[in-house]
């Protein structure tokens, strides 16, 4: 059947199970936008390509399927690079489609022309340009596999605009379901022996696909083997925080008792993660050069095993494949209070908030959300010191309930919240953003308003780039440069976009204001003023400046 390249592309998206996508429209792929009409694909029109790409990345985090984003050439693509970088560092499946100049104009620096393989070559898993419409089915099926198999990540596909209107006769490719990899029998046998001998084991869950039956299997495995389980930085929800075997997260400013427990462990199961800079506490948690015989590292990409840490046992496999392989392993006769002790350490660390300067107490707010929202609620955030209160006090219980960038990208929270609420409208979705953080992607409030997506945004305003000020006060005490902010009236800005808004100076008013936001039926923004002295969860600005 003769079809245009654009029609073939959209047909492949439907075959691959794409249900929604994001875009900022551009003339370079008008034919694709036309082909999408009546396709059933839910297309969210965004206001800036960085926000569109971050929304797609959040979809990949939630579902394990590639998030799909369309942008135009040149500045559209480079704006989207921030979201591609998040997908790369967070190991999230994503496909970015970029319009490209016509094939007969290439290599002349035509209007907005870029070499996308060169531009994205160090960020994406694969960057390719499709010059022949007849190869669209082949290359899209490959793209879905590259994005999801091995270590997941982003793929960038450039689409010359004249190629998209070529008419060709080509067969569709079949749906590309990623392969589930099971560790070898010898590896599982070695793990069984180590589990039987261990007295102080601990499991660290990373970016593996811990959802559905796999997550249930991990819970059963932890219970059967008396394993305390923690999660890597911003991987909350991989294991339910209200489970007796959950013992905390390896975030920035992690519980010192959790760090000590890992260092004292006689068996460390690193499952699905890379233990990169943040969760490893700046690569101090484990020995790197000499290796660590206590370490069992499960990962779906063999190139990752031993890339940083030399493990005592390396297992190549996906999370699902691992759980299938260990489902019948008998539990040990381990009798100790090891799990209960680490669980109590977590509860002591995370339950009650520390008082901070000012009338707006961030810890109290996070505890209110923790105790009020249901287990399926999603909390999203970008980057900033405000996020440390989330990490410490909120308890993520459902997969996909934490959507935050391990890459530390500012501006991520709002686009992620838009996608989270669009994808699962029945649940509460709360974006917590700093005043510097929110301004990176604040225009996506207009997207939420346009599509009637009733998320709730908490803007925590202390009039500064707080994380950078923290480092500045530590390294150059009292010498303030480039970190002060003169902010707009965020509530007035959001109201102009059609949102429900309120302004809060005292956390005692938060519960009632939050309830009003929940029932408003609109996107909502609560502008919350935090005392600048409350620079971190544990130290004031003055204490950081004084070096205390």
Element layout with pairings:
Layout lengths: L1 E3 H11 L4 E4 L6 H7 L5 E4 L3 H15 L3 E5 L3 H15 L4 E7 L15 H5 L5 E4 L6 H13 L5 E7 L6 E3 L15 H13 L3 E5 L6 H13 L4 E4 L13 E5 L5 H9 L2 E5 L20 E8 L11 E6 L2 H8 L11 H13 L11 H11 L5 E4 L5 H7 L8 E2 L9 H11 L5 E6 H4 L5 H7 L5 E6 L4 H10 L14 H7 L3 E5 L5 H10 L4 E6 L11 H6 L2
Write down the Rg: 24 Å
**What helical percentage do the residues reach?**
25-40%
The CATH architecture term of the largest domain is: 3-Layer(aba) Sandwich
How many angstroms does the end-to-end distance come to? Answer: 73 Å
Q: Tell me the strand order in the biggest sheet.
A: 3-2-4-5-7-6
How many domains, in number, for the residues? 3
Strand content: 15-25%
Q: What is the number of E strands?
A: 20
CATH C-level label of the largest domain: Alpha Beta
Outline the biggest β-sheet: 6 strands, parallel
Rough shape?
globular
The CATH superfamily name of the largest domain is: Thiamin diphosphate (ThDP)-binding fold, Pyr/PP domains
Mean pLDDT: 95
Q: Could you please say which CATH topology of the largest domain applies here?
A: Rossmann fold
Low-confidence stretches: none
> Number of helix segments?
20
What structural class do the secondary elements suggest?
alpha/beta
In brief, what are we looking at here?
The chain has 548 residues and is α/β, with parallel strands linked by helices. Helix content is 36%, strand content 18%.
Give structural notes.
- The protein is an alpha/beta fold and 548 residues long.
- It has three domains: 168 residues, Rossmann fold, CATH 3.40.50.970; 163 residues, Rossmann fold, CATH 3.40.50; 195 residues, Thiamin diphosphate (ThDP)-binding fold, Pyr/PP domains (Rossmann fold, 3-Layer(aba) Sandwich).
- Helices cover 36% and strands 18% of the residues.
- It has 20 helices and 20 strands.
- A six-stranded parallel beta sheet has the order 3-2-4-5-7-6, sandwiched between helices. The chain has a six-stranded parallel beta sheet with strand order 11-10-9-12-13-14, sandwiched between helices. It has a six-stranded parallel beta sheet with strand order 16-15-17-18-20-19, sandwiched between helices.
- The radius of gyration is 24 Å and the shape is globular.
- The N and C termini lie far apart (73 Å).
- 54% of the residues are buried.
- The model has no long low-confidence stretch (mean pLDDT 95).
